[in-house]
Design a protein that fits this description.
Blueprint lengths: L9 H6 L2 H10 L16 E7 L2 E9 L5 H16 L7 E2 L8 E5 L2 E9 L13 H18 L18 H4 L1 H4 L5 H15 L8 E4 L8 E4 L2 E4 L6 E4 L1 H12 L8 H19 L10 H19 L7 H7 L2 H6 L14
Antiparallel strand pairs: 1-2, 2-5, 3-5, 4-5, 6-9, 7-8
Helix pairs in contact: 4-9, 7-10, 8-9, 8-10
């Protein structure tokens, strides 16, 4: 959900111990000695070597994601990779499985492995217009392909956005003092759920396609971390990319003009690959607000509110008031991009 907030629970991290990691590496034919330090926020993620090639090992605790949900994620990513898209293909285990369940000392994990993306992460200050255009092309390719994707098993599929646990459980996550936030969120959820669902506007998407979930090889992006993928409006992938692009911009940057240029670039690339009616541009402010609130919820779910880090404190500073007062995340004319 969030590419910066460390919401991995310490008790889960503690269960991702040496025995679990050794067993996981063995199942996928990974050199145990090559495992790097554990990273990640809602999953335990390690860089490693497999058959002499760089790879990624990911362990998801049973309290975070079910085995069937992970199988649905990997089926879709494998489908996209099979059509030549620049995503990290999942790797099969020694038992020819994409997902290996491991239970050891009462710890339950679903373990998967991926090819490592080519290139590297690029800080926002060094990102180019060509990178944004190529991000749009990739999202357009994904949305075009996802229209024809059909899971092999209807009981093994991803959630619709409103069934994601943070959306479904926000009232139990937030404090009673956040009643006004809950009311705003409830209204927004109902408004977005009322939008027309069509093959050309709604389907299985990444939902978290910011630059912490992609590497660039030159100007070419490779997208990874499909852990939050789900059924949502296509415009959401564009809006969420915009949300993180403008989050915490330096004070001396022109926020609105930077956002306009980014939207021009990402939409230019997107429209080369997929057609989305211009009326969806007017939904971007609602998706931005939805992400603003769900990130507020995620921080309350995953963090010690009495011991917040600097990033969380900065994000929450004045955030409740902006949510309750319905202050736009970005105040620009979206119709100008039609």
């Amino acid at each position: 959900m969030c590419h910066t907030v460390p919401i991995m629970k310490p008790e889960i991290l503690a269960q991702c111990n040496d025995a679990i990691l050794t067993e996981a590496a063995t199942r996928f034919g990974i050199d145990r000695s090559s495992l790097g330090p554990i990273k990640g926020f809602e999953n335990c993620v390690c860089e490693c070597m497999r058959h002499g090639q760089p790879a990624i090992l990911r362990l998801s605790h049973s309290t975070h994601r079910s085995k069937s949900a992970i199988e649905a994620e990997l089926e879709w990513v494998d489908y996209l990779a099979g059509h030549g898209l620049s995503v990290c293909r999942p790797l099969r285990s020694r038992h020819d499985r994409l997902v290996e369940p491991i239970e050891l000392d009462r710890a339950g994990f679903s373990v998967v492995a991926f090819e490592r993306a080519a290139g590297r992460g690029v800080p926002r200050d060094n990102q180019t217009s060509a990178m944004a255009v190529n991000r749009g092309r990739l999202l357009g390719q994904i949305h075009k392909l996802t229209k024809d994707f059909k899971p092999r098993n209807d009981t093994v599929k991803r959630n619709h956005w409103y069934d994601d646990p943070d959306f479904a459980n926000y009232r139990s996550i937030l404090n009673p003092a956040d009643q006004d936030v809950m009311q705003r969120f409830a209204e927004l959820i109902e408004e977005l759920k009322s939008l027309q669902v069509e093959r050309d506007t709604y389907g299985l998407i990444h939902t978290d396609a910011h630059t912490s979930n992609m590497f660039f090889d030159g100007d070419r992006p490779t997208l990874f971390d499909f852990d939050d993928c789900g059924y949502d409006y296509f415009i959401s992938d564009i809006a969420i990319a915009l949300f993180y692009t403008i989050l915490f911009l330096p004070d001396d940057w022109n926020r609105e003009e930077y956002a306009r240029q980014f939207l021009r670039d990402i939409l230019a690339g997107y429209r080369e690959q997929n057609t989305l009616d211009d009326r969806w541009l007017e939904i971007i402010p609602k998706i931005l607000k939805r992400r603003e609130i769900i990130l507020y919820v995620a921080i309350h779910r995953g963090m010690d509110m009495n011991n917040l880090d600097d990033w969380c404190r900065r994000y929450l500073d004045g955030r409740k008031e902006r949510i309750v007062d319905n202050v736009p995340v970005l105040d620009i004319d979206y119709s100008a991009f039609a």
